[in-house]
Structures are given as structure tokens and as C-alpha cells.
Design goal:
3 copies of one chain form a homotrimer.
Chain A lengths: L4 E6 L7 H12 L4 E6 L7 H11 L8 E5 L10 E6 L2 E6 L14 E6 L13 H14 L8 E4 L13 E3 L2 E9 L5 E6 L10 E4 L2 E2 L3 E2 L10 E5 L4 E6 L4 H5 L6 E5 L1
Parallel strand pairs in A: 1-2, 1-3, 3-5, 13-14
Antiparallel strand pairs in A: 4-5, 4-6, 6-7, 8-9, 9-10, 9-16, 10-15, 11-12, 11-16, 14-15
Helix pairs in contact in A: 1-3
Chain lengths: ~260, ~260, ~260
């Protein structure tokens, strides 16, 4: 017997009972499912942040896992609802770009638009997480095939976020900050493979140097800035035991350069 | 084999380990139980908010689920501890009114006062969640019958919160805001069935008009106020992609009227 | 069949997806494991707070539970990674003192330093929670014996926090505040067994009297200060339905005395 897992990622918080309502629907429809609350603390309506969080864990879970994402500023408009299968994992989410990063996986994606007839019972105007997305996730967790949930869409049909693209020319790499994490680390879009070896290069954020690329936090003293390759193989700027975001007053979108 | 689930709702936060202590007791007493943390972020001591969150998810969970609620400003006084069975779900909570809304279910309720002899081991003065409520929830999750946990109480014996009652007279419905959710939506106590059709009526909060009843967020532009039927079939006032609570500076208790 | 449980305690928050990444690794490596998020809200880098939270729940969980703790300001330095078995429970954590309190259990401890060869796949410089600690926890959850995870260490080999020690002389007990919890309760290091009976003694915080030792919150009026024995058998100072931390402006380290 395979244990199916459903993970939940929303911007609902937990206090109002909305997140638990989704869990309840899944528990009722697919008994025996493990429900993992990935997070309900995504900043409200921040589809970019949700997509980046999702890609950090989606493919670490085993095949068969259903990842449910409801960060949905478009609820109550005619935005579509999606279910997808990518590299053995399932995704259920609004069609608002939140799956952009998980779709970058080097694997074919099957995508369907959730069909109205698939919804059992009445659908509220305000809470599709409970009435549309959770029921679809539960059906996948129960083992129903994806194509029974709706009509197949082509990959180019769905909405993708225009992610910022890093560039490089002779001796210079240019990218930007794509996320500030809870520790104040500045996550960039500059891939590790474009970086010089530890000890070399000059990294700058918004024109301010933070020194060469380093190997690890221990390479600098506490409270010092450093640039290093983080856990998703991109350049990060950090302060050891501190916040680079606070130190540099830098936010999403700030330019990052590396002189190689 | 039925998987039993226990949900937890408290105002403990998680950082101190109190919530995990309750989960540990349940895991030790009823191994194999799925423990779902509904929320530990209820505002401190806010029995009204806890009761409203609870009713949002309690009956979406399958029969046999045990819902444990510990928002308990009366710990250390002589308030009673309750366990109840309503429509196939179990509830364990202090007798402080937090079950008022789930008791409104159109189904008979069996209620017991948790008996002292039921407590195994010493009971602390400050943490009945761990020492009284979690053990009782675990016994129900293990399949013990309700009436073994204590003496049967009549429904009228227990404490109920005086929930505000909406009213209607010729052409006018009057109610109030009963909750502000995380998105700044203002949840009222006015039932959907009293409302005119979308497009009709004039809704006002504290005397300020927010226009007619609408069908969905997409009926107004981003940043605009609207009134619509929310996910628990009552009137809500919202700002599309914004906070009605901030816009109207309205809070629990504010008057809401609908000219039909 | 035994259900294995892994609990997670970190200072990661949830919004960035780091906590879910650890859960994903465990789900992939040890399918069928129940994953309990104890907390991801430990104050950043606060090893003392994490250790105190951990001891509140660790031994309430059944034998065989794996407790994973990643509050790890030393990531990226040469601090060791540990796994331990104490009184039937397993612990996986950095060697930074976070296990000090659970090691005070009156039971022998087996401890290993996680061996490099034990790590499958590449290890990032910044996220040992995902790359080292979660895989080790998952292997224990899968039933692998502790000594396969690394080389045995002696108990005196590992780092312990210098916990403040209370003292007593004729008629006077002296200790300090070791934690302020979410409710503003001031948790001290003064053991219950050193206290006079309820109604006797004079307790003072930073020189200000808070009256005699009480039995329970109900012994004072709402809003009043009191001292009582809390849920881990030490003296606590509280305000009934309020915050003693706010009232007394007291924090970790403040002196607490009891005139017996």
C-alpha cells in the first residue's frame, strides 16, 4: 500500500480555519492521506514567492505526492483552475503563474483545466481552495487519473510569470534578487555554474561590493557580508548570523553583478 | 482499518513547545492517529474567534474525527472540561462557549463533563491542554465510547456564547460584523437567504454604503469595495485584492444594514 | 506495524519552503512516516529557546519517535552534526547545546557524530537541515540502528549550554527567568520541590514582590500577578489573563527570589 501525501501551500494563515477546511475536505475525500501543511504564511497574493517556495520542496517529495497551492488573488474572476503531472508529482493550483518554476523541470508535463462537472456540490464565490482545488487534489490522492479531472491543455496555453533572466558578457555576470528569505538572505537568479571558484570574483548588490564568492558562512566573521552558492544552486548574499536585507536595504529586483 | 484523525486548535503559538506536547500525548496514547494542526494562532483567549474557525472545518472532516480545542482563559478556575459527539464528529474543549457554533448543527449532541477519574497521572495547574484535554481526545481517537469519559450533561447545562442575532423588518436587514479575517474581509451574521439577488439592495457598514450585493470579486475593479455572499453563506464585505477592515476602519460588532 | 513519527523543530518559518523541503526528504526516504511540525517559529538562532521547547514535548511522544531539531547558527562552520538515542527516543541536531536539556533525562544516552559517508548526494553549504539532518532522521525513522549513522561519541564530548543553576540558603531561594512564553509567563529555573506550600513564601522578580506562591490562576483576580508551579514543575510568574513580561518588564536572566 502506498501512502499518498498532499501538501498545502497558501497565503491564508491558519487562524480563520480556512486552511483546516481544505484539509478536512481532503481527509473526507481521500481517507488515509497524509496531509502536510507546507506553509500558510506566504505573503498575501504573492504568486512569485509561492512559486519559489514550491520549487524548493516539490521534487524532494516522493512520486505520487500531490502539491496543492492556493495563492489566488484571482478568485472570483474567470482565471482557470489547473491540475498537472510533472516528473511523477501532481500539482493543483490556479492558472496564475504559480507553477512557472516547477514547470522548468526537465521532464514532460501533462496539464488539465479543472472541469466544472468535476466539482461536486455548490461552489462558493470566495473559497475555491475548499470547493475546487482541495477536491481535485483529493481525487488525485485517491488515485484518479489526471485526465479525468478536466480537459487537456497544452503547455503554452497556461500563464507563466516572466521570470527575470540573468545575463553574462565578457568578465561580467548580471542578475537580480528574486527573493528575500526569512533570515534576510538575498536569493539571486545567478546560477552557480556561472560563478568563479570560491575566493575569486567581486560580487556587488546595487553597486556595493560584498567581496568575492565564498564557499561557506564560516569563511567570514560573524556579522560580515558574504556571497556564496545557496541551497538551490544560485548565488546568495548573506550576513553570517545576520540579515543581508537589513544591512544592504536591498529587496526583490535589486541588481546583482559579479566581476569574474 | 479506519484512520482516526485528531485536529488541534489553540492560541498557544508553536514556539514554546506546548502545542507539540499535546500532539505527543495523543501520539503516545493513540498510536497511528493522524494529527492535524488546524491552528495555534487563534488570538489569545479569543473564544469567539476560535468557535468561528472551528465551525468552518469541523463538519468537512469525516465522521470519527476528533476536534480538540484549547482556547482556555479559564484554566485554573473551576470551569468544566467537555467532550461531545455531534453528527459523527467528536469535540473536546473547555466549557466556555467555544462549542456554541458547532452545537447549532441540525443534529443531536451527546455531551459529557470530563470526569476527574478519567485523568491519568497528575494534572498541572496551568496546562490542561496536555493533562486533561489531549488525553481525552486520544481516548476518543482510540475508539473509547464517549460516555466512558465522564458524566452525561444536558445540552442546556453547558455555557453558550450570546451570539448576536440579525433582524429584518420591511425592506431592511440589520446585522453586525462577527469576524475580521486575515484578508481584512468583514464577515457578518446576515444569512445569504435574506439577501436580494446580486445587483440589488444597498449594503452599508456603520452607515457607509458599499453598494449592492454582488456575485463575486470579479464584479468590481481591483481595490474596490463590495458586498457578497462568502464561503459560509453569510454576507461579507471585502475589497478586491485589498482589506475592507483597513478601508472602512471597521471591527467586530460594527453594524451592517441591507436595504432590500 | 509501528508507525514511526518524526517531529521537526526549526527557526526557519514556513513561507520560504525550507521546512517543507526537510519534510519532503523524510517522506521520500521513509515513506509512511508521520511528520509532525512541532514548530518552525523558534526565534532565529535561539538555541536556548529551542532546547526548552524540545524538552517540553520530547518524552511525551512514544518510544521510537525521531525528534529533528535544526536551529543552527553554526551552519557552514565545522560544528558537528549529532544523532542520539535517549530513553527510547531519537534526536538529530547540530552539536551546539540544543540537546542539553533532553540529555538531563535520568537515562543513558547513546550519541554518534553523523559521518560524512552517511550523506547521500551533494551537501549544500547553507542548508544542512535538508542535506544532512533530515536524511539522518529519515534513516532512523526507517529503523536503521543509530550506530550505523556515525562514530560513537562520549557524552562529555559534546557541547552543553551552561544552564543557570538556582541556589538556596537559609530561608531564601534564588534563581532566574529562563524563558518568556507566548502568554508572557515568566518561566524560572526554581524547582517546585524547593517551594513552600501554596499561600506561603514571598516571591520577587528583580526585587518587586509578586506575593506568595499560589496554587492556580483562580486564586487571584483577573489582571493580577501571581507565582505558581507551572507545567514543567518549576516556578512561573504570571498575570491571570495577562502578560507578566509586560507588567514587570522582565526578560530572560532577571533574578527571581523566594523568601521561604
Amino acid at each position: 500500500v502506498t501512502v499518498r501525501r498532499v501538501t498545502l501551500l497558501t497565503d491564508f494563515g491558519t487562524a480563520d480555519g480556512y486552511a483546516a477546511a481544505m484539509a478536512g475536505v481532503i481527509a473526507a475525500t481521500a481517507p488515509g492521506t497524509c496531509i502536510d501543511h507546507a506553509s500558510h504564511a506566504v505573503p498575501q497574493g504573492d504568486v512569485l514567492a509561492a512559486g519559489l517556495a514550491l520549487v524548493r520542496y516539490a521534487y524532494l517529495y516522493p512520486e505520487g505526492t500531490v502539491h496543492l497551492v492556493v495563492v489566488d488573488p484571482g478568485v472570483g474572476t474567470d482565471r482557470r483552475a489547473l491540475a498537472a503531472a510533472i516528473d511523477g508529482r501532481f500539482f493543483v493550483a490556479p492558472d496564475n503563474g504559480v507553477l512557472t518554476r516547477v514547470l522548468q523541470r526537465d521532464a514532460p508535463a501533462s496539464i488539465v483545466g479543472l472541469a466544472d462537472p468535476a466539482f461536486e456540490g455548490p461552489v462558493s464565490a470566495t473559497f475555491h481552495g475548499r470547493d475546487i482545488f482541495a477536491p481535485a487534489a483529493a481525487r488525485l490522492a485517491r488515485g484518479e487519473p489526471l485526465d479525468r479531472l478536466g480537459e487537456t491543455l497544452t503547455d503554452t496555453d497556461i500563464i507563466r510569470l516572466p521570470l527575470p533572466v540573468p545575463s553574462r558578457s565578457a568578465g561580467r555576470v548580471r542578475g537580480e534578487i528574486v527573493q528575500v528569505d526569512r533570515f534576510g538572505n538575498l536569493i539571486t537568479n545567478i546560477p552557480a555554474m556561472w560563478l568563479p571558484a570560491p575566493g575569486a570574483g567581486i560580487v556587488a548588490v546595487g553597486g556595493s561590493s560584498v567581496g568575492p564568492v565564498r564557499r561557506t558562512y564560516g569563511d567570514v566573521e560573524r556579522g560580515e557580508l558574504l556571497a556564496l552558492v545557496g541551497s538551490i544552486d544560485v548565488l546568495e548574499i548573506s550576513v553570517r548570523d545576520g540579515s543581508a536585507a537589513a544591512r544592504l536595504e536591498a529587496d526583490r529586483g535589486a541588481e546583482v553583478t559579479v566581476e569574474v
